[in-house]
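Could you show me some protein's one-letter sequence and the numbers that encode its backbone in two labelled lines?

___
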Amino acid sequence: MRLLIALLILLAGVSIAYAHGAEDHEDDSAEAPVIAGADIPEHPTYHEHVRAIIEANCVACHSDGQIAAYAPLTSTEDVMLAAEDIKSHVINAYMPPWPPSQEGLPLQNDRRLSDTDIALIAAWVDVGAALGDPESFAPAATDGFDVPEVRANLTLQLDEPYTPAADLLDDYRCFALPLNISEPMFITGYEFIPDVAEMAHHAIFYVVDAESDRAIQRAEATDGEPGWQCYGGIGIRARHDSFGGWVPGALPLSFPSGAGFRIESGQSIVIQMHYNLSIERQPDQSQLVLEMESVDSQLDEITILSMSAPVEIPCPAGVEGAQCERAAAVKRVGDLYGEDARYTPDYLLYECGQSLADYAENRGEAATGHCDMPIRSALTIFDAAGHMHELGSSFRLELNPGADDALVLLDIPRWDFHWQGNYQFVEPLRVQRGDVLRMTCTWDNSLSDEPRYVVWGEGTTDEMCFGSLMALRD
């Protein structure tokens, strides 16, 4: 079996700090890293030392037609006006956005600036943000990366455009697009083409089974507009798997040779679009281009492993009342989402071999949920992702915790609901039967505008602790 390398399942969401108030969380006392032995000039200038960093790492989003067009960095004047803000954002690691820490496995497409680049930007601002000589500019070295070419076997697009809701700043909308294939196929690549890039914040692609047609039809009939609202997922009860997504600046994707995501006749693809409407509000008719191969190609089939952990979040200190009782929380999700949702909190405890006593010490300001998943057969894992909602504080995925061979796969110490991604390992991870994966989520209920006891639920104001991995089985 081929060892997978370099699978670029694009990020599921991107957070633009200017749009989502990162300044509210920044530490004004943060300092630039001190780099031992680094050649930081005494008087750095923009053109010689900083311009290449900005153009290589910032302009893809902070330019006309992109999600951060309202905060452009395409001209010298733009950068000079934003110099102090740029320094603050990079020191606090909000720009470029990259939630995983270095404690986890090395990841592909890491967007973090190096400590040296951060120190250079800070030093440049601290000594007066001098322009310097434009002739001294040298573009950043490239790695020779070629943009993948995706063969267009099938192009999916809405029959009619959707105009985002006028009363929302962030509109999450799902659209179901039938595959219309007569036999099983493999998706081997894709390209997403946003219609209005200025308001396209992210897109996530799901495959749903044919039995979901009625649920889709009910959802589509809710408000008379194309698609339906869907915060935090696809918004309907349906068996579904995600095979990728798109964010601003993302490239077309080609799966590695010999591997593909299997799709069946009768299935549909649901695209969850997140529109950020701080700049534009226009009709949207984005496209998803699929490259496919016949099932006769005998490709290795990508497997998706899913994990869920209990959500037991009490009210924060000082908040009291009936809304802080667990029974009220369980009744609430049952009333909102049906009887199955009412049983989910206890079912998750059972599935994870736990009881409420395991969460007796949870505090509203620092609540945790965790679950272990034994590996049943040998796998090669090449991609991992986590999912929580707006109260999330941190996410962590570990292999064999507490053992001599313990390993952190993915660590996100500062959760951001607006940036939830699939992350690809530089080197695929081989796991064996008997290994154990542990997922841990933490939440801060004091972030809620109306704190209450929170259990697992479908809405954005509810919470989840969910993880997924993409792998190949032996």
About this structure: The mean pLDDT is 85.
